[in-house]
Amino acid sequence: MSTEVVTRFAPSPTGFLHIGGARTALFNWLYARGRGGKFLLRIEDTDRDRSTPEATAAILAGMAWLGLDHDGEAVSQYERADRHRAVAHELLEAGKAYKCFSTQEEIQAYREAARADGRSTLFRSPWRDADPATHPDAPYVVRLRVPHEGTTVIRDEVQGDVTIRNDQLDDLVLLRSDGSPVYMLAVVVDDHDMGVTHVIRGDDHLNNAARQMTIIQAMGWPVPVYAHIPLIHGPDGKKLSKRHGALGVEEYQRMGYPAAGMRNYLARLGWSHGDDEFFTDAQALEWFDITGIGKSPARLDFKKLENICGQHIAAADDAALLHELQDFLASTGQEPLSGAKVDMVNKAMPVLKERAKTFPELLEKAHFCLTERPLVIEEKAAKNLTEDSRAMLSDLTPQLQTATWVRQDLEALLNSFAEDRGVKFGQLAGPLRAALAGRAATPSVFDMMLVLGPEETRLRLMDAAAPVRA
């Protein structure tokens, strides 16, 4: 009988949800959800000086925006310190750990002497095999008795087998002199107690795996499946940093990228399924596997991100898109749409979502149905409202009074009107854009007319056709 897949995401609440962390969470979510397993969340808040409730809230908000739901309550690592201590004492009692009374000064002196002699500076405690009867009444740390012979092999699903010589591993500290457990111990105990079967995390943790395995083996626990994924680099191939742009997930939300597009792009960042670039959540859940993750760092590419997001906006359900648009407005401190504006945007959505890559672009296209009379006409558009063009709009308005308000008939009417006036349609379209939207760049004039309706269209044309007052 196969074991249920259990993955986890374990961020430290010392800041925002980093884009790299978001991808790690996504990979864990996809792997578990695609196999009917569990995806767990653990907040690694043992660094009390840097961990904040605000950072925890930011992580949860980022995951909620990305739609990465987790099973059960989020686990606080700090609150499990007693359990971590209990495991350390269990190892101590079994003789698999020992009390080390070496001071920081003694450890430093040992390393300096080793450096001078050209030896390894890896600290070897003189207390490892000391008789307990010789133990002083002094502060001590608890160290794991790590085997110094042989090798530790990390069987990694992404990196392949990674072999570490045990003589390169130190007797790692499990409990500090104040009795507080170290991160390495806490991670191992929590993963075991939470039933984690697959540890999918950044390859900056690869060296930690060998040290954590020594604890796992000392406890006689099963070793999880490891998959250490390459980090994300900037477009220049260097480690992602502030100079490359947005680092936190909430920044991407505020820039107006749709969550589905972000999920698609992040999934594709370092993982591939043939040549597929655009895919749905259902396809990602069906296709995602660790074997598709590459060994090389992925590069963040904003053009690809925008392209993918544009495709997701175009393919999205109109009602769902409107809901996410409202969330975007809230995330940027803008007033949500209400009343008639909601109706207008909903009506215009099929037009707006074509070729819009972000929500700001979609809102820019929606300007014509969000603005109200009298329109403020931008300078570039105003140049199209000459005396002749205003006269054209004045003559056109009564003809629209009896028009059938369907696209085919409107196209026929406007093209016939332009022909009768001896102008190309483009010479009529410019003044119409200015009249209907107050902008030079707009959706199709026919699309705008259909969304605005007969009465609003005629009123806007009459406003624009009115003589300019000195």
From TrEMBL:
Pfam family, one: tRNA-synt_1c
Primary localization: cytoplasm
EC number(s) stated in the UniProt entry for this protein: 6.1.1.17
Record keywords, A-Z: Aminoacyl-tRNA synthetase, ATP-binding, Cytoplasm, Ligase, Nucleotide-binding, Protein biosynthesis
Lineage: superkingdom: Bacteria
GO biological process: glutamyl-tRNA aminoacylation
GO CC annotation: cytosol
UniProt motif ('KMSKS' region) ranges: 239-243
UniProt short sequence motif 'HIGH' region, positions renumbered to this chain: 11-21
Domain Aminoacyl-tRNA synthetase class I anticodon-binding residues, every copy: 322-464
Subunit (UniProt): Monomer.
Family under the similarity heading: Belongs to the class-I aminoacyl-tRNA synthetase family. Glutamate--tRNA ligase type 1 subfamily.
Protein name: Glutamate--tRNA ligase
Organism in which the protein naturally occurs: Pseudooceanicola batsensis (strain ATCC BAA-863 / DSM 15984 / KCTC 12145 / HTCC2597) (Oceanicola batsensis)
Lineage, top ranks: Bacteria, Pseudomonadati, Pseudomonadota, Alphaproteobacteria, Rhodobacterales
Gene encoding the protein: gltX
